[in-house]
Structures are given as structure tokens and as C-alpha cells.
Amino acid sequence: MGRDGRGVKGASESSIEITFMYRGIRCRERIPLKPTSANLKRAEQHRSAILHAIATNSFDYAATFPESKNAAKFAGQPGDVRTVESYLDAWLDRQKKQLKASTYNGYRKIVVGYLVPWFGTLKLSALQKKDVRDKLEPLEASNKTLANIQSVLRAALTEAADIDQLIETNPMAGWSYSKVEPPKETDDIDPFTRDEQLAILKAADGQGKNLIQFAFWTGMRTSELVALDWKDVDFIRAVVRVSKAMTQHATSVETTKTVAGRREIKLLGGALEALQNQKQYTYLAGQEIFQNPQTGERWAGDQPIRKTLWQWVVKKAGVRYRYPYQTRHTYASMMLSAGEHPMWVAKQMGHRDWTMIARRYGRWMPDADAQAGSRAEALYGTHQLPVLQNSMDKH
What are the structural domains, with CATH classification, of the chain? Predict the structure, then answer.
């Protein structure tokens, strides 16, 4: 790129080379100036003026570099008027072939909902980080949402610069915008108590009850539950193998997002009971375990479960409403409160290590053993010091 990545460098004892992108082509032109510090600075200013002219579609190659071979090559060609919207549309089409349906839909929502309304009419080469900051600054959104918007734009611009070579550099590279957020007073973990679980299961029946009970006793994500087939269950070893998921926007079952997500879950009594009760409905067909009773087909993601089953059952049970994902949090809190090892719980739930468990569910861990600390206290407590000292003196 030249001097500190600024697109200028000394080409000889009497010339300086300027590099810039024009109509998707990397161009190099020489200026008859000795490469002194002052002249290199002048060359940088000249290059900046060229880039501005290109961005505003007012660049005249022949007038700027009349003796250049590139001037003749570009003569009579229309200027590069590619807009942010036209590039993002093409970029999204390519992503659709590479991403899971749920991920692609998230990208599409950001492009359609934010990026195109904000920057769609801008020339791709004219977009700068200041434009992005000016839109994000007044936006009432969490830093997670801001990060997601910037991540999509950054990925698209990286491809525009590195692969399509339509822009000189990615203005989002190495930069991001975030706000100072106050600490959250509460989190979204709100598990169901034992009595609430019993009330919900009493209010449900048939396949709906089996699905809910299985969710409580495996901690599986809803997308994983609906993707399960009977071939994934090993009744001899009492485990179920999780290797795929069915999201709302997918047209078919997909693999799990992470390696840790592909796992074997030990089937505890409540989960095994739910599967045995479910056999009468779907076992002989030998395909999906859980079906939507209204359609006789595999559940199409979590929203149909929430709208046609979960909301009705929770209301009937008289239980304070929480969304279905709380069954996963309920499983974690039950296991930890009962004293199960955090690493085992992490593997059951598809986390790579136990740090996520400790961070999210730590407040249930002290309750794992009502006598926690008593063994150490009995052995090393102050009332035992004389005994320990006498033992040490003998040795």
C-alpha cells in the first residue's frame, strides 16, 4: 500500500507512486516528485482528492493523469455507481448459499431493517465510519444489537474490499461503536419451581405433556427438541444423541451451530417416562419423536409450540407466564441445586466448558449441598487445632 498503508510510496529517486481503487480495479500512477517527506505528504493530499472525486462520481481520469495508459482504458466507460444497497443485495444472495437459515434470516433483517434505510443510496466507496457512528449514536438499542448491526456491515465491506476489490479499504476494520450501559439489575433466568412444573404437566395432556416433560428433564433447546428422531434415542444406554436443530426459518433440519452442541444427554427418569408415553403416537413411524397434534407433522420451530401449546397450558395451570426457553434454565437450576457437578451439567446442556454454567447459574450452586463446607470445617476448624498439632508433633 505504500507509506504506512496510506497509498503512496517512493517509486524512484524522482517519482512517487499513488495507489487507489477505481471501478473495481487497483490503479497505480506516478507523480514526478522526489520522494521527500514534504512531497510524500503532498502526494497523500493529492490521493485524498482523487478518492473524494471518485466517491462523488466526479473523477476525470484523463484530466488527472493525461499520459496514463489507464486513461485510455477507462475512456468512455460509465463511472462506478454501485450503491450500498445494490452491493448488499448481491452479498446477501451469496450468504444464503453459505449460512444456516436462522443466521441468514438474522443478516437479512439487519440489512433490510437498518443498513439499506440508512445507507442504501450512498455509493459503496463513499461510506465512512462517521456515517455509521451518526446512525448508531441516537439508536435506542443494546450494545448487543449495535454489535450485530456492525458485524453484518463489517463482513459485507470486508468482502467488498478483499474479494471484489470495489473499495480501497474496509472503513469498519478495527473499529466499532458501543455505548456505556448501566449494569443489568436482573437477568432473564427465571426457572419454574417444582410446584409450577407439576401444575404445568397436570394442565397438559398427550403429546404436548410429553414434549414439556422431556424439555424439563433434558434441558434441550426447543430447536433441538423438535429435530429429534427416534433413531437418536438409545434406550439400552439411556441416552439421546443431539446433532441437529430445526429453527423457525429453516426449511429442513440443520446441524447444531457448535461442536459442543453435538452431544449425548443422559436420560433421567422424567425424560425416559416422557419418551415411553410418546411411543404410542410416533414410534412406529420411526421418524420425528414429537409432532404438532394439530398437523400430525414435525413441529416447525419454537413459535408454533409457544402459540398453540405453551401459552395455553401455562395459563390453564395458573402459573406466572415465562417463555418456553425457561424449561432449559429450570433443568440447569434443578441439577445444580441437587448437587450435580457443573462440568457434567455443562456437557448435558451443550456448553464447551463449565464457566458459562458458573456465570449464568452460579446462584444455585451454593444450594447444591446444605452441608457444604462442614467437612472442611470438621477437619480444619479452630476446635480441631490442638488435635492437629498433637498429630504433627508425633511426626
Answer: 3-74 (no CATH), 84-162 (1.10.150), 194-361 (1.10.443.10)
* Helical ranges in 297-373 per DSSP H: 302-305, 311-317, 326-337, 342-349, 355-361
pLDDT tens by residue, the chain, 395 residues: 444 457 899 999 999 999 988 877 788 999 999 999 999 999 999 998 988 887 777 788 888 888 888 877 776 555 555 789 989 998 998 888 888 787 888 899 999 999 999 999 888 888 999 999 999 999 988 898 999 999 999 999 999 888 887 887 899 998 999 988 765 544 588 899 999 999 999 999 999 999 999 999 999 999 899 999 999 999 999 999 998 877 655 444 555 455 445 899 999 999 999 999 999 999 999 899 999 999 999 998 888 999 999 999 999 999 999 999 999 999 988 888 888 888 898 899 988 777 777 777 766 655 445 555 565 556 555 555 554 455 555 55
- Name every residue whose Cβ is closer than 8 Å to that of residue 76 and which is 6 or more positions away in sequence: none
The CA distance from 161 to 164, in Å, is: 6
**DSSP bridge partners of 26:** 21
